[in-house]
Amino acid sequence: MQLKKVFLVGPMGAGKTTIGRLLAQELNLPFKDSDREIEERTGADIPWIFDVEGEEGFRNRETSALEALSQQSDMVLATGGGIVMRAENRTLLAARGIVVYLATSVEQQVLRTSKDRKRPLLQNEDPAAVLQKLLDIRDPLYRDIADYVVETDNRNPKAVAIDIAALLANK
Ligand SMILES: Nc1ncnc2c1ncn2[C@@H]1O[C@H](COP(=O)(O)OP(=O)(O)O)[C@@H](O)[C@H]1O
Ligand SMILES: O=C(O)C1=C[C@@H](OP(=O)(O)O)[C@@H](O)[C@H](O)C1
Ligand SMILES: [Mg+2]
Fold it and tell me: Could you tell which of 9, 22, 112, 131 is best to mutate to test the pocket of ligand 1, judged by most ligand atoms within 8 Å of the CB?
């Protein structure tokens, strides 16, 4: 595999962070997560950023973090689910690495995010409706930049990571 920057994109609960860490092990590459990078740079967690700076403030920080991370060398980068909302982010992702879209049903997204209170966009009475609305908007954006689309429903994270490593080995 020539290009050694792998960007995982997909909705909340797709497994970008979980599978990204496992994939980095498979590929013997460093693992990075744009949400963690944002929190480290800010010195505050994502709910605080959304609270104080709004989603716009978070998106500005997300683009800055992506700009910096995507210039570094080899890595597996787990992105946040909304990173594709800005065209400049999509351009960076498509130009600077291999993009893998973790396709996941809304049902699985809901199940996998139901216990986690750290996703501000889901702290309401109908997270399934929010996730469906976001997927309707974002699925075409994920697919537009994806080099590979990998289904994750009813598959364990390790098996998905091994599959992606095999796909990349043949690139
Ligand atoms: N393929 C999968 N099958 C079952 N559970 C999963 C799968 N992928 C991720 N999870 C679980 O779903 C939750 C959200 O995963 P996470 O990696 O944080 O997703 P993302 O970073 O895409 O929002 C975690 O508890 C994780 O263990
Ligand atoms: O889909 C989104 O807009 C978001 C997804 C989150 O990351 P994960 O996809 O890793 O949960 C995080 O960036 C923030 O809560 C916003
Ligand atoms: Mg994540």
Answer: 112
Task: Identify the CATH homologous superfamily for domain 6-169.
Answer: P-loop containing nucleotide triphosphate hydrolases (3.40.50.300)
For the CA of 20, the nearest ligand: 1
- State the Cα–Cα distance between residues 141 and 9, nearest whole angstrom: 10
**Does the pTM of the predicted model rise above 0.95?**
yes
Q: What is the pLDDT of residues 113-132, one digit of tens each?
A: 999 999 999 999 999 999 99
How many whole angstroms from 10 Cα to the centroid of ligand 2?
A: 9
What ipTM score was computed for the predicted complex, to two decimals?
0.99
pLDDT digits (tens, 9 = 90+) for 56-95: 999 999 999 999 999 998 999 999 999 999 999 999 999 9
**Residue whose C-alpha is closest to residue 96's, from 116, 73, 115, 119:** 73
Name the region of 29 (left: φ>0; alpha: ψ -120 to 50; beta: rest): beta
